[in-house]
């Protein structure tokens, strides 16, 4: 039986690296997001409710309750936590001695503390995923460091029979993440996913494209559709192989997931999310594969082993054949030799898929339970091999504690996992619901489902802010990362997440009243608050109003699309030496859907809301207690600053 010592170490290193990126990225944005002059001041989120210290900490688990003892406000405490988290994660990444239970406990507690006051800017699925992964990492991390001496380590190996139990939860988390991400694309009834055309829009309409997105967008449509089929295969059909008894099937599943995540990294800026997903895939590996011993062909020494090897090979071939047949049958794949393309279409209906999902959701839970039972039996067998009554007693205590923790976390995770199939969710054991409700505020388990629906099917909507001193001559305020200037190529941003740029993408999908933080952003720009300005441009001369704040700010809505290869060379540019523009845009105002796409400059017209200086005042709108269930990214904040939008003055005539 292959061990998992090397994959566990790789997992702990990877989690430390992701925590380092997450904390460092957040640290640079705290003054503008959560400072006293920020968009959503963090001090407003923590207000004592007259409860005792421990009940208050249990209800809203954050270390920032203790910042007044250090003479710091909430934002300063958040900066301190982020800085310490960055340094501690860097140490765990580089030093074997710091990959300890207490270190990962501190990292998880620090990020949970930030999450509790982060409001809408920290309510992304990858933040929830990092919290869940971080908690698993503290269980995977050793309570004490294993000795370096080979003889001592071999003697200790039987004393730690529980080591693989928490690591199995990482595999289960990866399964839930990938399977749900594939299923929700179809349960959403999004016509782009059902028509296999999602990728013809995705590269152009995603939040922060990369330079490679332009090239991926202009690949043939048939290849886009075939890529969607491959996505469904990798996200829905392959994840059950994570629990396959045949090692080569698990490795094939591993490489398919790595391929998908690497392609997403190349074509999109999704901060640390894809890196974190790659870290989760380490649960599919073993020591032999990482040590390079997999390629050594071993001749079976006896006929039972030879028979098992033959059965494993036949099972492997049967699985590959079944996957190939299923893809061809469900998506009607046909090779067109004349056009050198592959035609594909969805051959099943929404009702058929819903019935299939209803049929398989509960069996996938039983599959996970059976796999966990096998891990428990394996751990129990290892415990029987421990020599010495004292070592056996210590191993029994550890096995009991970690075994119960593993079973409890698995049970808790069934509740959010079942959200994707309502009837199964309703039939789930009531004890699981109660247990999940008890610890829900600790963010130990979440439901996942990325890219549920494609947006911007008629061009990506984009909000462009413009400022003016007189209300007639307008200057565009360009962000560092999000599309704005049509002549600027998309940048490479990951693993950093510019959280304001991300929320601007969500704001463009609806009216500004659906994004209460947006008018708070406008107020800070009218006031000329430097921390907020640095979120938009960290180099002051690039911000057009760095010398004096604007008197007026307005929001214009445009629709952007990637320029075509021919369009780049035929359009006149003010500077002939300037690079060709990768973007085209048109105004997205009412009644102008037939306007041509062009590199549209700031116009003198007014199609968006106006915010003159001094016209609006922030006020505090308390929300419900912290900790409600959220199933998708970019939800409105529970508590936030917002500005009244029903008393906006008219622009000057």
UniProtKB/TrEMBL annotation:
Regions that span the bilayer: 12-30, 75-95, 102-122, 128-145, 226-246, 258-285, 306-329, 360-381, 393-417
Residue stretches making up the Lipase maturation factor 1/2 N-terminal domain: 123-290
One cellular component term from this protein's GO annotations in UniProt: endoplasmic reticulum membrane
Function recorded in the entry: Involved in the maturation of specific proteins in the endoplasmic reticulum.
Boundaries of every Lipase maturation factor 1/2 C-terminal domain copy: 445-568
InterPro entries linked to this entry: LMF, LMF1/2_C, LMF1/2_N
Keyword Glycoprotein carried by entry: yes
Protein name as annotated: Lipase maturation factor
Source organism of this protein record: Balaenoptera musculus (Blue whale)
Region (Disordered): 622-653
Mode of membrane association: Multi-pass membrane protein
Subcellular location: Endoplasmic reticulum membrane
Keyword tags: Endoplasmic reticulum, Glycoprotein, Membrane, Transmembrane, Transmembrane helix
GO biological process, one term: protein maturation
Family: Belongs to the lipase maturation factor family.
